[in-house]
Amino acid sequence: MTYRKGPTTQQAHVDVPKGLYEEEYARNGFFGRTSHLYRSQPPVGWTNIEGDLRPEALKVLDLPGLGEGSYWQGRVTFLENQDITLSLTTLTAPMAAYVRNADGDEVHFVHKGAGQLETDFGPLDYEAGDYLVIPRGTVYRYSPSSCTSLLVVEAFSEVSIPDRGMLGRHALFDTDVIKTPAPAPREGGPFTVEIKRLDKITTVTYPFNPINTVGWKGDLTVWQLNIRDIRPVMSERYHLPPSAHSTWIMRNAVICSFLPRSLENGDPGAMKVPFFHSNIDFDEVLFYHDGEFFSRAGIEPGMVTFHAQGIHHGPHPKAIEASRAKTFTNEKAVMIDTRNPLQLTEAGRSIAMADYWKSWM
Question: Where does 31-45+232-360 sit in CATH, by number?
Answer without folding.
Answer: 2.60.120.10
